[in-house]
Amino acid sequence: MTKLKDSDIDIQQLHAESAPGQFEFVMSPLAPLAAVDALLAAREIIVSLAARHGLYATFLPRPYPEAPGTGAHVHFSLIPPDKHEHFLAGILKHLPAIVAFTYPNEVSYERVVDSVWAGGTWIAWGTQNRETPIRHIENSHYEVKCMDGLANPYLALGAILGSGVQGVLDSEALTFTNCKDDPASLSVDDRAALGITSQFPKTFDAALDNLKNDTQL
Predict the structure, then answer these.
(1) Cβ atoms of 156 and 172 closer than 8 Å
(2) Does the structure show a pLDDT above 90 at 117?
(3) What is the pTM of this model?
(4) If 0-12 CB within 10 Å is exposed, 13-18 middle and 19+ buried, where does residue 213 land?
């Protein structure tokens, strides 16, 4: 923490997670480009300090098959907040292609499983729902859970924000309803009633195909 502070990187929280040797650090909110710059600087400091002490810091999405994976979740808030539903609709529309940036490696898809608080496999959103890839926290504050540490955060954030902005420009209608349960636990009919009909691609090649077919993104 001292080294991060000395580098003007503000960490709001640092705590242990459930996998062996797994920790989560939460950074303070910044403008998009500054946030990514700070994230990469923090990672470099963590990796170098770990190596200095004979340890290996990794951001692999699932280093232990039997334990929960590691993500790189993105929080964003819109100011002013009045267009946030169009912004959310744009992201959801393009999410099957966005994952080509946020899940950019075959091993990324080892983490894409249901019912382990990783965001699940279904394209959906829900208020305080950790089993949906987009978690609504409050007002215009959202968390995008479908991103891991192998992603280039500049490209990933560009894809997320670009899709959201396109949703605002197009006044995209939000056809997904707030999902309060684990989508995987619902029946086909119950998911359909919430607008949940599609799952994430299961491989990186499939994600690339989605990206090629998404002419806007």
Answers:
(1) no
(2) no
(3) 0.93
(4) exposed
